Amino acid sequence: MEQLSVSELCGYINAVLTSDPVVSDVWVYGEVSNCKRHSSGHWYLTLKEADARIDAVIWRSTALRLSYLPQDGMAILGHGKVELYNGRLQIYLDFITPAGEGLLQAQYERLKAQLEAEGLTERKRPLPLFPQRIGIVTSPTGAALQDMLNVLRRRFPLAEVIIAPALVQGEDAAPSIVEALYELFDFEPDVIIVARGGGSIEDLWAFNEEIVARAVFASPVPVVTGVGHETDTTIVDFVADLRAPTPSAAAELVTPDLVTLRDELISHVGLLHGLFQGRLQLLRSELGQQQQQLLRHNPQMRLHQAHEQVNAQQQQLQRTIQRMLEMARLKVQVAERSLVALNPERTLARGYAVVLHNDRSLTNTSHVAVGDTINIQLHQGQLQATITELRD
């Protein structure tokens, strides 16, 4: 018989517990007692019923993302795993909710909180404007498929539609949806629709499974969900890039409307035509200005302009010289008349004479004396005389 130490026995029991699929992933009902929050942020409590109890721990990291915290006397439904600690069984809780909400709702809230904590609900990629290839994951026999195909043919018949059939209800639905998604990935669609018609929470439960949510998040292209009716919200709706209220609405969201596109195109063509005409007119005006500038800077034109300027200046110079010559001629004529008027010969011709003494004109008797010799210049000839008498 094998003998084990206490620590070996505890280790063996703990190994059995952690490998057991039931106690390593278990939901448990119970009433909270001895609930305490440690200064570290961890919560320690006991879950009990009439004849049984188990210690429970909520780590600080878990408590921070819980929307619901325990209190003494509260009946809760908790999820976690059972392990052995210091020889005592403990359940480490990663999610709790009021016991009255039911197991399915509790599982839903736990998975939603877990995916939010991992950031899987934050990615929202834009949809392609003009998808060339659209993938659809849904039941091949459901009315939802025909509704979507009708919408796609009406709105955007240019797109190729690839259908990946899958079970959408029952125990095998979740792995079937995952398989269909990964098959679609190989066809490289531009966008994927995951859809099914309405139903109860049990009917739609495959779309609340973790493997489906992670497969949707793994999609290399945007995913639009259209699961159930407008009031139905599943886990994949949070992980998808866009949620549509119905399958038909999902088909509308992933496609443009050709009629609307045509009207917008006509409007844009008119706008572009107006812009083109305005731009053309502006270019014509700028071209005219450039032509004028080229003409002004053309060498032949500049030579012609210089030649014209030289001719104009030459004519102006000729006119100026002519005026100067005319003015000089007038001045000469005036000077000639003045010279003629002042010529002593003319005065002598009228009978006047010029008296010279020592070759200088004599104008006053005080400049000579009796006995001086003077010369008298007549119009014709000269006289020489001696002064015999002076009179004032």
In a nutshell, what does this entry contain?
The chain is α/β, with parallel strands linked by helices and 392 residues long.
Give a verbal description of the structure.
The model has no long low-confidence stretch (mean pLDDT 87). The radius of gyration is 61 Å and the shape is rod-shaped. β13 (373-377) and β14 (382-386) form a beta hairpin. Strands 1-2-3-5-4 form a five-stranded mixed barrel. A five-stranded parallel β-sheet has the order 7-6-8-9-10. The chain folds into four domains: 6-118, Beta Barrel (OB fold (Dihydrolipoamide Acetyltransferase, E2P)), CATH 2.40.50.140; 133-256, 3-Layer(aba) Sandwich (Rossmann fold); 259-297; 347-386, no CATH class. It contains eleven helices and 14 strands. 22% of the residues are buried. It has 392 residues and is α/β, with parallel strands linked by helices. α4 (143-155) runs parallel beside α8 (247-253) and α5 (173-187) packs parallel to α6 (210-217). 44% of the residues lie in helices and 23% in strands. Heterooligomer composed of large and small subunits. Bidirectionally degrades single-stranded DNA into large acid-insoluble oligonucleotides, which are then degraded further into small acid-soluble oligonucleotides. One of its GO terms (molecular function) is nucleic acid binding.
